[in-house]
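Bumping my old thread because nobody answered last time. Still need a sequence for this structure:
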């Protein structure tokens, strides 16, 4: 044990020394200690504080890229921004916010932004594509004329996914030419629509699908908007097929619980086109309409305007794929080098977690369904049986004429008496809608001009004085 200068002092001497030190401390102003302490804290705080300097985008070059985006659209008001992110949140609102916070863009309006398609409220997307100019990792001071190779660029996928909500993910990115448009460079779009069989006749539905294929005028399968001044309603359906959904085992759950998917591929689509097509397809499957109803509705001379029938549900609709020629998608930050935890694997884990959570919810509802299916009920012949048997034997149209119309997504619409589609009231034709729109626009313009020409109270008083 090392010696100190206090070792030779007696106990009494040590106590006396302590008393002197305490007296000196009591005479020192407390403000000095406060000042010293405050100064010390101030220095420490500034050592850890980062200086908030404005980010200088001008130091970097820009490049145009395409992004492949996946999203669950159930909680959003469609894909396209409506400039009301708080009251009407959309997928684009979330993307724009992430792009700006990542310092990849400063202003969306100045980024030459384009989207492949506008999905409606509630509709999801797996293959949606957007394109825009973003910040590159290459500095303006770099004299090399070429763009950076993908493996040396910013980790666009990782950076955006860290800031996006869990129901939106960027899957990959691709370098594109400066004149690339996500809308006009797309060569094909594929939608999928999922549905449970219920009591529907799948073969009749497949026959109806064949009438949709090829170039047709789809004005009776869309929502007409005269303000858009659509000049042609002809669209090409490349293929439309119905297949059982893989990896689902619901056959024993209840009557008609097997799931199918409609895969619909075309070059382009009109507003609400797929959902109106599915609505008629469900009528065919239920036996309420013959497959030839599709052929009749596509004949504009026979049916010049759309009969009144509802849209199918938005819930099961997915923009499954968008096709482009010559794009090379980069799914990870560095596709050519081994990474023990690459971007694509992180996305896979993310959707594995989402899937597990949704499956648990589905299994919970399935248990409820199975239990209620065993409840007793009186059958039409007055015997007692189960709800499951009652559901199996219940016809699409009851003896009293009440019909249950399938709308998809678990929704049905009950009507007192079913009326065939071709016998229903018709909407205005496209020409009539456009003429009414122009008339309304002219009346509104005339009203505004008249209001501008009307003298104000001051003008009227001045005129009165001049006349006197």
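Sorry it took so long. Here it is:
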């Amino acid at each position: 044990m090392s010696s100190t200068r206090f070792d030779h002092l007696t106990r009494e001497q040590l106590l006396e020394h302590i008393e002197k030190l305490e007296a000196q401390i009591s005479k020192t102003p407390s403000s000095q200690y406060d000042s010293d302490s405050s100064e010390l804290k101030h220095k420490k705080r500034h050592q850890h504080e980062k200086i908030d300097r404005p980010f200088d985008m001008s130091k970097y070059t820009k490049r145009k890229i395409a992004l492949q985006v996946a999203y669950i659209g159930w909680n959003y008001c469609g894909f396209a921004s409506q400039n009301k992110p708080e009251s009407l949140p959309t997928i684009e609102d979330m993307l724009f916010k992430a792009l700006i916070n990542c310092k990849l863009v400063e202003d969306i309006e100045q980024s030459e932004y384009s989207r492949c398609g506008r999905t409606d409220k509630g509709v999801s997307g797996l293959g949606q594509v957007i394109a825009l100019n973003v910040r590159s990792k290459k500095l303006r001071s770099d004299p090399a004329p070429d763009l950076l190779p993908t493996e040396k660029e910013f980790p666009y996928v990782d950076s955006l996914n860290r800031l996006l909500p869990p129901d939106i993910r960027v899957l990959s990115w691709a370098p594109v030419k400066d004149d690339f448009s996500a809308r006009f460079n797309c060569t094909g779009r594929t939608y999928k629509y999922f549905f449970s069989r219920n009591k529907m006749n799948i073969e009749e539905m497949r026959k109806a699908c064949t009438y949709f294929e090829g170039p047709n005028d789809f004005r009776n399968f869309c929502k007409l908007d005269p303000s858009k001044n659509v000049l042609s309603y002809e669209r090409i359906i490349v293929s439309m097929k119905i297949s059982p959904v893989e990896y689902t085992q619901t056959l024993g759950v209840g009557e008609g619980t097997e799931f199918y998917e409609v895969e619909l591929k075309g070059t382009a689509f009109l507003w609400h086109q797929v959902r109106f097509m599915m609505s008629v397809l469900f009528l065919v499957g239920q036996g309420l309409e013959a497959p030839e109803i599709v052929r009749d509705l596509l004949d504009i001379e026979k049916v010049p305007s759309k009969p009144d029938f509802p849209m199918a549900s938005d819930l099961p609709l997915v923009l499954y794929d968008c096709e482009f020629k010559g794009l090379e998608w980069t799914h990870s930050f560095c596709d050519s080098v081994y990474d023990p935890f690459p971007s694509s694997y992180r996305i896979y884990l993310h959707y594995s977690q989402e899937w597990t959570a949704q499956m648990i919810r589905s299994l919970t509802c399935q248990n409820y369904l199975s239990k209620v299916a065993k409840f007793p009920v009186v059958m039409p012949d007055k015997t007692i049986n189960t709800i499951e048997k009652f559901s199996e034997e219940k016809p699409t149209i009851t003896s009293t004429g009440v019909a249950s119309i399938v709308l998809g997504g678990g929704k049905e619409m009950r009507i007192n008496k079913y009326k065939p589609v071709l016998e229903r009231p018709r909407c205005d034709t496209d020409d009539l809608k456009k003429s009414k729109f122009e008339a309304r626009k002219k009346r509104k313009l005339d009203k505004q001009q008249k209001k501008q020409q009307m003298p104000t109270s001051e003008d009227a008083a001045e005129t009165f004085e001049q006349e006197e």
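The first strand starts at residue 60 and ends at 71. Let me know if any region looks off to you.
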